[in-house]
Amino acid sequence: MKAEFPDIEIAGNEGGKYRTGAFEVTLDGKMLFSHFKQGRFPDNADIVRMVRENS
To answer: What is the C-alpha separation between 26 and 12, in angstroms, rounded?
Structure first.
């Protein structure tokens, strides 16, 4: 991810800000992917595509 998008920030559940067990991708406050909603984890290509489509 960092190679493709050097300014990307990737965070976990610091300070309880995110749901435990969740894997969610957000960009500028917009949720692009939710493990809970889709029932699966994305692969790197999925994330790259979502970020490009929403940048």
So the answer is: 12
State the pTM of this model.
Answer: 0.65
Q: What is the pLDDT of residues 7-49, one digit of tens each?
A: 777 766 666 666 666 788 888 888 888 888 888 888 889 989 9
Compute the distance between CA of residue 45 and CA of residue 47 in angstroms, rounded to an integer: 5
**Strand partners of residue 30:** 27
The CA distance from 50 to 38, in Å, is 14
- Is-contact 26 32, C-beta < 8 A? yes
